[in-house]
């Protein structure tokens, strides 16, 4: 059974995870989003993201539980994705929970990474972890084994989610960039 933790208590519980100060501050900034939903838009310009730019994008309602902050993501009618931020004793972890309509996990689910540095109170980066590399290789997604995800928050103004990937050798030879995807959510207008 899942339990919803009211905002004041969520902040106290998450602070108790005593990670690096910048990560604690980042987590506390995220708890200001608990119980709210926000509209977003893709601000990156990669052609591959045209379908996302054409859809309404909603994050939330953000759920603060004892062990994690969960941010459901709706892209148009697709509500299969949830970002899960897990404050642990030494580092924050970001996971992507993908589900089918019946609630069962997608074959490509629970991938992500652990913050390798302290980051800042407003930005954390999560390089791909070993579990995710093995999953991507198993599922035929070799380009994803070098992913780095990031989250950024300007309290009361903006929340962002990013995916970046360095260019492959072929892309470098053709003087092309790697992968960059960014969504920004307007925190000034909760839905």
What does this entry look like structurally?
The protein is an alpha+beta fold and 191 residues long. The chain has one domain (7-186): Beta Barrel (Lipocalin), CATH 2.40.128. 20% of the residues lie in helices and 35% in strands. Strands 1, 2, 3, 4, 5, 6, 7, 8, 9, 10 and 11 form an eleven-stranded antiparallel sheet that branches. α1 (7-15) packs antiparallel against α2 (21-31). The radius of gyration is 17 Å and the shape is globular. The model is unreliable at 1-5 and 7-16 (pLDDT under 50).
| Number of H/I helices | 5
CATH level-two architecture = Beta Barrel
Helix content, binned percent: 10-25%
CATH class: Mainly Beta
What is the structural class? alpha+beta
Shape: globular
Strand/helix succession: HHEHEEEEEEEHEEHE
Task: Count the E strands.
Answer: 11
Work out the radius of gyration. Answer: 17 Å
Largest sheet: 11 strands, antiparallel
Per the CATH scheme, the topology name is Lipocalin
> How many domains?
1
Q: How much β-strand is present in the residues? A: 25-35%
Report the uncertain regions: 1-5, 7-16
Measured between the Cα atoms of the first and last residue, the distance is 27 Å
Report the mean per-residue pLDDT as an integer: 90
